[in-house]
Amino acid sequence: MLDVIFGNPILLALAALVGMAIAFGALLGFAAVRFEVEGNPLSDQINAILPQTQCGQCGYPGCRPYAEAIADGDSINKCPPGGEDTIHALANLLDVEPEPLDAEHGVEAEPTVAYIREDECIGCTKCIQACPVDAILGAAKLMHTVIVDECTGCDLCVEPCPVDCIDMIPRKGGIQHWYWPLPDGQTRDNLIATDRSSQQAAA
Amino acid sequence: MSLMHVSSPHVHKPVSSVEQVMKQVLLATIPGVLVLTWFFGPGTLINIVFGSALALAFEAWALWLRGKDYKSPLKDHSVVVTATLLCIALPPYAPWWLIAVGIGVSVLLGKHVFGGLGYNPFNPAMVGYVVLLVSFPLQMSSWTEPRGIGEVPGIVDAFTALFAASSYDAVTAATPLDLFRQNSGMLFDDLMQANAELKGPIAGLGWDLVNLAFLAGGIWLLRQRIFTWHAPLGMLAALTVCAAFGYDEGSSSGGGSVLFHLFSGATMFGAFFIITDPVSSAVSNKGRLIFGAMVGILVYLIRVHGNYPDAVAFGVLLLNFAAPLIDQYTQPAVYGTKKAEVDE
Amino acid sequence: MRQIFDIHGGIHPPERKDMSNPGWVSDSDMPSKLVLPVTQHIGAPARPIVEVGDTVLGGQMIAEAQGPVSVPVHAPSSGTVTAIEARAVPHASGLTDTCIEISLDGKDEWVSCQGLDNWRDETKAALLERVRLAGIAGLGGAGFPTAIKLASDREMGIHTLIINGTECEPYITADDTVMQRFAQQIVEGAEILGHMVGAETVLFAVEDNKPEAVEAMRQAAEALAGAEVVTFPTKYPSGGEKQLIEILLNAQVPSGGIPADIGVLCQNPSTAIAVRDALIDGKPVTHRITTVTGMSLKNPGNRRVMLGTPIRELLDTAGFNADTADRVIHGGPMMGFAVTDLNMPVVKITNCVLAPTRSEIPPPQPQQACIRCGMCAEACPASLLPQQLYWYARAKDQDQLERHNLMDCIECGACAYVCPSHIPLVQYYRSAKGSIREATKEKVRSDNSRVRFEARQERLERELAAREAKRAARKAAAEARAQSGDDPVQAAIERAKAKKAKQEAEQ
């Protein structure tokens, strides 16, 4: 049989290709089993990147459903609390192009926490039931208060409150959180010469 | 009163700017250009002037197209350096359109397409040179006879060659590397006897002194700390070692001698002016040493076993591809990541 | 002669130290009021323990330390507390923080200070407590609580104490002056510090551009056994703690670690004097020696200043010409920050106030593109690749920044100093570090929220399941009863029927 194969160049080529396919296929199969990495399914990795405010601004009832939707192919630019940083991190993870935040779902705003004006609180527990992370301390007919360190700023407690006594106040800012911004080269003192557009130069 | 709010440091090294660096590089090319002019006539000098003017025009146009300020960036002289380096590499009596295409490709495709100064992954002058070499091989191999063998063209001839190429009657000659490449069967000593072009004091006539002049310019730049010694030394050392290994007493199929390789063609020019372009080479000193060494090896291989007489341009471009990979593996040991015990 | 070593990189900026007459110090005029921030150190803010309207005496504690990594604040002179509110504080941001404002009565009356008769008899814990209560933080400019630094409890202990009189930044001569004038007190302080940490060797490090200080320290150090004055060539930034350890001991502090990890402790000469004053004289930190310099001043020099003195008043006593200066720097020109409000006060870490004229320190030149020349890497004392850090900081690539050891950058500014393209490199690194820090904090927070959310979901599901289980149990019980014929409803109906029948029968 070998004589037949080696005699006929076409058969030889065919045999060589088939042989190589079998060999490399076996190698790949072996590698797939031997070097398999136990990793998180994709939606877990995506969920780890999302900010966990559970606010629903993306259109899904929480961060985990949105993570699963992204794993199924939904766009990554629907999360306002995550903002640009989250979009970039998701783009890196999924190897897609980052897009600007979809304005339909909200705008990137300062992180906030809820604050209950205790003078006005009537103790109805509606906000406690609404809070997705149990950040409001209180019970029926007793004072309610927000645990600041646990509040994600999701806004879900504001609507249910019948006396509208909840404010959203900024969480950051102040000397403890400040850091230098990236030089943008557009200030009077730090102008990047090559970035001055010709219109600006003419102005 | 309104006080400035800027980040530290508030002081800066005096007299340090991109313009300064570029001016010093231009100064360092002067000895080499003068020797070229002595041996081959004013062609190179006129090309440089013509090329620089064209380059400035192309750069202004590119900046205007990109919607940026097109006046102040020209002051940094970077494109003049590109033009000068390219025109030094081109044959001295090339027609104007060859130079224009070369400069255009260098400035537009070699630099601005990538984002302008500081963003080009490839050496712009070499991009232009290689495009010309591959597209116009005839014009790119039209070198003239050096002084001592033939008539050195004058200024009128230079202008004629530049603008009225069809009416210019040139006598072309082979460069030493051309002769070496085309040699088939002659022992090197015999080749030298047969061709006056190979009978310079060190290597090829005229070319060896040109290389010496560029070496001088390069050493001056080293002293001025425009760049560090790693890349040039890497290239020259690698070339020396390869040539030494490949030398077999001048047989017809061997490599040339060490001196022949070091002082021919664009070796010194490449070592001190081309591979030291900071934008397209490696970042760390170790990386630059490797970068230079590999250019040296490639230059030797292409010269001896490849299809082209000289190979600096190809070597540099190939290594420009590899520079990010070299960077990845040559990070210096950061403080605090090595010795941790107190030596008393 | 002790062998010294060299650091990688470094630069030689013009020193400009003669301008401030090192070796001479005069008292600054008494200011009209003092504004004392509650945070003049690294760590938790101090908590005010006085109220508006209270009279205070010099040396009285007006804010107490909160937690272990905190330092109290003392009133430098007698007067009345007129405000406790947010004021502009000397910080790179220019933002405000809680300050205690004291209006001085000019009498400068002090509390009675009780020092220790023999500090050698005290336990280390007792000494540390005194250091803490005296409000001592690193007076060289870092402001780290000294009591915490001295309490370091690494297994190997401390074998070498270094008194860091390097003062490598241009313009600043405060340490030089202190060493020339108060060498003996420095040595006394070093002795105490050495005793507290158990160091065998005490090194006084001085750069060779301060010959008078070297001489003064040499004479004073003869009194202390095991002490040595070491000089080395002037180079910036040799005075950085990590670089100094490399120069003197040829050892590197492990990345992410502190000098105590290799058995070394560094202290500024002024801090050593503050420790001595606290233990021997019982005096808290209320004044400091600050270099006031720059060509916009008629009388530059070193001043002994009360903490809380508004910078404006300090400059005025030095003859400040405000028209010639458009920048006032707190600290040195390499690492100091620009002061935006001259009402900001002098604090514990104010080693220098620099008011240069426009021509002395010109406005920054426009930034150009990076030409990848690598001069920054040549200058970096930490052997980093500033160029790569720049590209990755622009790209906000956190992984690559960490792989290139961004956190090991000491922000000395040598890279930006040499950059031919005038790129403000240190600002990029500070921004990247800040955003990485904030991102890490946010990650911790969001991980916590996710856990809490999932716990809540679990709780709701459990409650739902419990309710379902109860309902199912009731339903099953009802069915079981119906099956076995033992129907309590039917039995009740039958009992009622029987009772009714009985009643009818009796009628």
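Residues 186-203 of chain A have pLDDT under 50 and may be disordered.
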